[in-house]
Amino acid sequence: MINKITVLQSIKNQKYTKLYLITISILILSILLVFKFQNYINKTAIDELKNNVINRKLELVYINNDNSSINDLINKIKKIETIIDLYPIYPTVSCDYNENYKIFLQYENILELPKTINKRKLEDSNNEIIIPTSINNDLKSIDLNCIIDSENKTITLDVIDYYKQESDLNIAFVSKNVMNILTENHEFGKKFYAIVDDYDNLDNTIIKLDNIGFSSDIVNSLSNLELNNYFRLSKTINFGIYILYCLIIVILFVIIKYYMYDEKNNIAILKTLGYSTFIITFIMITRFLVLILISSIISICMYIINIFILSFFDFGSYNNFFQISYYDLYAFFNCLKTIIVLILFSMLTFYLKIKRIEPIVLFKD
Question: For residue 149, what pLDDT is reported?
Answer without folding.
Answer: 72
